[in-house]
Amino acid sequence: MTAKKVALICLVFFSSATGARAQDAWDRSEFTITRIKYRGGGDWYNDRSIIPNMLRFLSQNTNIRCAEEERYVELNDVALFSYPFLFITGHGNIEFSAEEAEALRIYLSAGGFLYADDDYGMDATFRKQMEKVFPLEKWVELPFDFEIFHNVFKFKNGVPKIHEHDGGPGKTFGLFHLSRLVAIYTYNTNISDGWADSEVHNDPENIREKAFQFGTNIIVYALSH
Amino acid sequence: MNAFNTLIKRIARYRRRKKILCFIEQSLQFFCFAGVIFIALPLLYKIGKSDLIFRWLMSLSTGGLFFFFAIRKILQPLISLFVFRKTPAIDQSALEIGEKFSAIKDDLSNAVQLLQDQQNRENPLVLAAFEKIVRRTAAIDFCSRFSLKKIRRMSLAMIAVLFTAVINLTFWYASYEESVAMLLKPGNFPASQALGFSVRPGNLRIPRGESLEIFTEIYGEISAPPVLKTIHPEGAQNEEVMIPSNSPAIFSHKMENINTSFEYYIRSGRKTSDKYFIEVIDLPEVLTLQLFVRAPAYANLKTDTLERNIGDAAVLPGSDIDIAIVANKRITAAKIVFPDSTKKDMPGSGTEFTAQIKISTPLKYNIILQDELGLKNKSPIDYSISLKEDQYPLVKIEVPGKDVDLDESMEIPLQVLGEDDFGFSKLDLFFRILKNTSGDSLGFQKKNLSFKVHEGILLASMFWDLMPLEIYPEDIVEYFVQLYDNDMISGPKKASSKVYRLRLPSIKELFAESDATQDEATSSIEELYEESRELEKQVENVLQNIRRNQQLKWQDEQAIKETLARQKEMLETLDEVKQNLAEMVDKLDKNDLLALETLEKYQELQDLMEKIASPELREMMEKLRQALEKMDPKQMQNSLENFQAMQEEFIQNMEKTINLLKQLEAEQKLDETMKLAELLVKKQREINENLQKTKQPQDLQQSAGEQQQQAEQLETVKKNLQSLQQSAEALPQMQMPGEMLSDIQEQAGQIGREIQNAVEQMQSANQKGAKKSGRQLSQQLQQMQSSLSKMQQQMQQNQKSEVLSALKQSRRNILRLSKRQEKLAGQSAKHDPTQYRDIAKNQQDLLSAMQRTGEQMYRLSEKSFFVPPEISRKFGEAQQKMQSSIDALEKNRGGKAGQEQQNAMQALNGALSELQQAMQSLQGQSGGGSMLDQFLQQMQSMSQQQQGINQGTQQLGMQGQLTPSQQGRLMRLAAQQEALRRALERLQAQKEGGEMLGSLAKIAEEMRQAAKEMRTQKVNRKTIERQERILSRLLDAQKSVRKQQYSKKRHSRSGKEYFAIDPGTLPDLSATKKELLKRDLLRAMRANYSKDYKLLIQKYFEALTKELESK
């Protein structure tokens, strides 16, 4: 069997195990985190354990009623507008079509929220795609007295550092549209990796705890603004 | 009477002849007039044939004139000739004749008048006169004087008119026919006419490719539809086209895109119109146009060749544009025409022309061409040249990018970023000092900064040394940068950064801040400790409930949830405290306000605090949470027990932290006191120097003020010493030498009194006394500083000795416990149930002994950082295993007991291992450790020696003329200095690599110089300064080495923790947007877009900016 055939079989299996997975119905009164299923080749689906873990933490530490499972949505799907909180992550290339960018702009302008977490490798491409969504708005690094750093859990030194990536402190950027924070982007830390099952990255428990806490801050902020 | 009648007849004949000639002349005039009218008829016809009113006017006026002239010129002379034959009267004619003949004059008239009277005919005299007249006129022919000249001339004119008329009639008969018809029947014209055509535009010259509409008006009965016939020179394109009708008599046909000349006429049946010719010509036009833009030199841009036929451009002011054209045909002149009608000739010949224009303002232009026929290009295109704005630069202080405090180094890293579209010319740093004391602000000073430019981005990085600015504590430095672009045409445009402030905090502030942070930290941890105790009780209650009820009740569940939440909050608070302490230590360290030992202890404290919130505790919390979810009482009990154990450890560590924190606080107070003492010494030296320079007694008042400030500073020292006294009593583990502390307090009291004495001397202008007192004070202060230093060293030595001794004791105890445990494990392994009771008893004894040792270790750990928390954990584990083995022995399970005893032994061995490491670490600290430690110790020793040499030299240096014994002492000091130099060189040889070598070499050189000056007894101010420098460098060298070590330790431990820089406040989003827009515009302008696209981009950005501003 040639390498190409193996790759093809792997691809078919992989796609059936990830992207093509059907979603069950969900109780809309429960909060859930919805992944953006984007095009471009990046691993939009990476690490299935992160969102259920985050939802569990959120459920246990706040009064927010949470679903157990994540959702995913393509930006040109009208169901987009059913979800209050979008999440995007990955290591690779992200591509929004003009229609998708338009849909995301409308969604965010209408009160939706996007949390993006760089899983090492999506920075350049993600920023470029977001320029399509809001050509006039720029990412602003959030100061440490911004609500997101202390609304539930306190982070005096900014975003917690979960994974080393490029070294140096992590950064939290916000995208303001008409003075409202519509998107948050954590860079050079990888908060969502800290939500993964402990055996995935073998992160110390205190590091994981910080990741969950920061995730909670983001979600609580998104739901209350 | 016959003669009379004859004469009358002759006169009558004259009259008749005259009338005939007049008639002839008038007739000729009439016919000439008629002929001219006739000739002009076709013209009048052409003018007025289509207009009824004109036709009527023509007809009536022509007819009227004709009749008028006919009557006037023909009829009237005829009537005069034939009807009024006797007019004028004979005498009138006679008079007329007399006027023509000078010989007759009026004689003839008189004679005729006389004889007309019958009575006179009888008068002889009248008759005689009459005969005389007759005789005189007999030979005269009265008609001889008539001139035929006019008649002949008119005849010739008439012939010419007649000839012309005949010719015209011959060639344009139809026109005459129609003209006459029009004149005769202007109302009915042309119905009554024969078929005729009126063709427009007739002959015409048109530019190639244009369209043409041919109109035909047809008069008369139309027998067949009109046809347009075109005849091309080549013949190939000849065609006949039926002309459609627009109205009953008007037909038109439009011809598109005419490219060749042709002849045409209209035909209807057999009748054809005249032939006309349409000539197609080429108007001059610009075939290609090309612009070459040369931007001003400062822009550093190459000549930009625009795309062909793009005449619009956006250029920088000062640009030169070459406009080159190629015409479609040979032209004689080309001009650039501007809206104000001014023109600029374009030199060139044939079809190619070029001109250059310089652009300073926006302008519009078009290009006019003229060919050899004098024809000009039609509708020249209007082009416009707009000015491309050279954007203002952007500048930003990236680092520090916020207001910051200065530290002891008086240096801040400064990083400036700038952007511009074409480049930069200058970057200036502006700064001014706002004095704290006077509140005055000096004007801004300027400092030029060097910079690099990379891909259009300016970057200036430097360490700004503020030392030369003589900034004093609490002064503020305001600063900003100003960036100029390189626009040399309109003048460099500048942009300024935000104004930031630097502040030099006073030591007092720093210490106060540090005290506050420490107090807060201690208080927070004490609160946490209390809360932990409460939680511990809560957990114990829940555990008892579960054990009692064997089920988990709702209240217990809530209590556990609350415990977990509070525990988590405590951990967060602990993190905050840790962070605050780290920041505080960092700040104090930067300002060199902490001894290295204190600094290291803080690091140990950080480690300890890290261990309080241990991963194991978090793991237990997580397990407890999971157990809570499952609601399994057994699992819950188990998890709670484990959690309780971790909680106990947490509490113990906190207790330990509190004690250590208090101890550290006291030690830091000692550091602070030493620092204040050092400042007092330094200041006193300055005061003494001023006293030496003082010549006027009144100048002493200023020194008195300074000395008074010294007194205030000393009060702080005294308070600190009191505080240290209290700490020494409250924290005996500090091992502070009480007697030394009391001595120092006494010294401080003496210094206080001496200061008062000095102040009084100065106030009373006793210069000599003041100087003496100043010297005394200087010595006393140096002594106090030295005593403080010795006390600190003694205290540290005491601490280490005590801890080391205790650790050794503990090591012996644990070793003994381990051996006993091994023995018991061996007994249990024999599986002899009869021995189990004894073994259990011995195990119980061992357990008690271990608990006592553990208690000792715990107490020791409260006193020292060198007892690692892992030992407690190992002890806990051993205790648990020993208890399990006892339980197993009670149940006669020897195998299990033996196993647990083995485990207990392993835990004890683990504790032993931890203890061993702690001891090694402590021994390394107290000397005899690594090479580095030895090096540091030697350096420290050298520093102390140098300090002694310095003090001795200073004392001798102030004596003026030295006594022989003093000279001898100085020589001894010189020898010491030389010996120290050699020692340093040996040390230098041992120590390898790094910047340290260079530093040590410099110190050795300074020592050599100092020794020489002392040997030659040339000790002066320079020598003392040199020695101070030597000491300072020796201390710096130690500090540098230790800091390297310290940094390495810190880095390896907290590799994943970084100190992040707060980006400050959120920017004004609208301002940011404008700035970003501008930045984007600059980038777009630099990008490789086409010119017209850049123009569009610029307009787009302008529109966006306006929109933003309007918002």
Compact description:
The complex is a heterodimer of chains A (225) and B (1111). Chain A has 225 residues and is of the alpha/beta class.
What do we call the CATH topology of chain A?
Rossmann fold
Chain pair sharing the greatest interface: A-B, 32 and 29 residues
The amount of helix of chain A comes to: 25-40%
Just give the CATH class of chain A: Alpha Beta
- What is the structural class of chain A? alpha/beta
As a whole number of angstroms, the C-alpha radius of gyration of chain B is: 65 Å
Number of helices, where a helix is a run of at least 4 consecutive DSSP H or I residues of chain B: 24
Enumerate the spans of chain A where pLDDT stays under 50 for 5 or more consecutive residues: 1-21
Tally of strands of chain B: 30
Biggest sheet, spatial arrangement of strands of chain A: 2-1-3-4-7-6-5
* Average pLDDT rating of chain B: 81
Number of domains of chain A: 1
CATH superfamily of chain A: Domain of unknown function DUF4159
Structural notes for this entry:
The complex is a heterodimer of chains A (225) and B (1111). In chain A, 33% of the residues lie in helices and 16% in strands. Chain A has helices spanning 3-17, 50-61, 98-109, 123-133, 198-201, 205-224, and strands spanning 34-36, 71-73, 85-90, 113-118, 139-141, 171-177, 180-187. Chain B is of the alpha+beta class. In chain B, strands 2, 4, 5, 8, 9 and 10 form a 6-stranded mixed β-sheet that branches. The chains are: A alpha/beta (225), B alpha+beta (1111). Chains A and B meet through helix 6 of A and helix 9, helix 11 and helix 23 of B.
SSE layout and pairing:
The complex is a heterodimer of chains A (225) and B (1111).
Chain A lengths: L2 H15 L16 E3 L13 H12 L9 E3 L11 E6 L7 H12 L3 E6 L4 H11 L5 E3 L29 E7 L2 E8 L10 H4 L3 H20 L1
Parallel strand pairs in A: 1-2, 1-3, 3-4, 4-7
Antiparallel strand pairs in A: 5-6, 6-7
Chain B lengths: L1 H47 L3 H31 L7 H11 L6 H10 L7 H15 L10 H23 L1 H12 L11 E5 L3 E4 L2 E10 L7 E5 L7 E4 L2 E3 L2 E9 L3 E7 L2 E2 L3 E6 L4 E9 L9 E2 L7 E3 L4 E8 L3 E7 L5 E3 L2 E2 L2 E7 L4 E9 L11 E5 L6 E6 L4 E2 L5 E9 L4 E11 L10 E4 L3 E3 L2 E9 L10 E10 L8 E3 L3 E4 L3 H43 L4 H37 L5 H17 L2 H16 L2 H61 L6 H31 L7 H26 L3 H62 L4 H31 L5 H22 L3 H32 L5 H27 L6 H27 L4 H21 L5 H33 L15 H18 L4 H20 L1
Parallel strand pairs in B: 2-10, 13-20, 22-30
Antiparallel strand pairs in B: 1-3, 3-7, 4-5, 4-8, 6-7, 8-9, 8-10, 11-12, 11-14, 14-18, 15-16, 15-19, 17-18, 19-20, 21-23, 23-27, 24-25, 24-28, 26-27, 28-29, 28-30
Helix pairs in contact in B: 1-2, 1-3, 1-6, 1-7, 3-4, 4-5, 6-7, 8-9, 8-12, 9-10, 9-11, 10-12, 11-12, 12-13, 12-15, 12-16, 13-14, 14-15, 15-16, 15-18, 16-17, 17-18, 19-20, 19-22, 20-21, 21-22, 23-24
